[in-house]
């Protein structure tokens, strides 16, 4: 009595279902589209203003403000990964049998219409060694069978090309796993470090939280190179990694050439000017042609000659506009003259004599100042990046195998026909039947010349 085969696990059946795979892919596509529409990593007030109270609450509940790190998006990626693995495992035995099997079923090819038929004046016995040698140079011969009035030669090549699909599947799994590893154990943040300063903490982009690095990043120096037109050509930061007062690493970084330390990469992403610390101010009176120079700092006050008033530097404005014209960075101060109302004095760094337009009794200009910058660094740690790189390499190899190689089977049947030979060529291929047909045409041309 034959035992009844147990039914397959329903969960396994679900994961090997094409409909299930398509459903997961559609959900990922829809949620990814939503992620491009809904601003990511914004603040709560921004969502409240755009989507209202209910919409903002819904976004917070489902983590739509940081969708690609949400539990449900990670779950979809995990489900797709498991789906691909199970599908590959389910199909692997049949694929492996095809690759390793020594069996060849001529009847499967004979049941099809021959690709080509032609005749040769020689008899089958004369053609057998010639055709066998010819096919052997191009295919792995699986058999040469003698018929009552002729013979058959059959063989194949490119069985290993069937590995292309499993390789692509596994490469996608590596990419997805690498993305999950980076999502769970990596981070993406930023930090601005003043020239000559240091930082041991960064701000994370996805949560706006502060994270301790466990070491110091020092910006030893910062340089900018310009084109003759004045446009920025390159900006470079000289960085040092210091831990427990020991210098561990030092490197000059530019855009796309990061510093790497303990799996963390520091990318040059931006820069900006810092408020000048030391200023040289020149004050000229309309009653005197001899200007007076003062060395000042922001927040300091000086007295005008003969106690006629005082001038105070109040603040640094990094984006000053005058009548809707952007003048850039500027020093702002307050001029207080005896028996007169105070007035605001603006000294743009690019236009140090800007105050002349006021045509007052006292003209204030910016004679000199120090230039200091801060470097903006993108700080990333992605422990899954090597898996992603390996996945991309494998996917290229797998796609090459799929598109540029194929498993080809060939069968030549040579039978006697009125003191001649009738040759029929059968075949099959897993890719591009048109190319295979052209290959058969060339093979026939070569066989006729033998």
SSE layout:
Blueprint: H1 10-15, H2 18-37, H3 44-61, H4 71-100, H5 106-110, E1 116-120, H6 124-136, E2 140-147, E3 150-157, H7 164-185, E4 187-194, E5 198-204, E6 210-226, E7 232-243, E8 246-253, E9 259-261, E10 264-273, E11 279-285, E12 292-296, E13 301-303, E14 309-322, E15 325-337, E16 343-348, E17 362-369, E18 373-381, H8 385-404, E19 408-416, E20 421-429, H9 433-449
Antiparallel strand pairs: 1-20, 2-3, 3-19, 4-5, 4-18, 5-6, 6-7, 7-8, 9-10, 10-18, 11-12, 11-17, 13-14, 14-15, 15-16, 19-20
Query: In terms of structural class, how would the helical and strand content be classed?
Result: alpha+beta
CATH homologous superfamily title of the largest domain:
Kinase associated domain 1, KA1
Please give the CATH class of the largest domain: Alpha Beta
CATH topology of the largest domain: TATA-Binding Protein
Strand percentage: 35-45%
What share of the residues lie within helices? Answer: 25-40%
Number of separate domains: 5
Using only C-alpha atoms, the radius of gyration works out to 39 Å
User: What is the rounded distance between the termini?
Assistant: 59 Å
Order of helices and strands: HHHHHEHEEHEEEEEEEEEEEEEEEHEEH
Neighbour order of strands in the largest sheet: 8-7-6-5-4-18-10-9
Number of helices: 9
* Most strands sheet: 8 strands, antiparallel
| Overall pLDDT level | 89
Number of strands: 20
Shape: elongated
CATH architecture of the largest domain: 2-Layer Sandwich
Low-confidence sequence ranges: 1-7
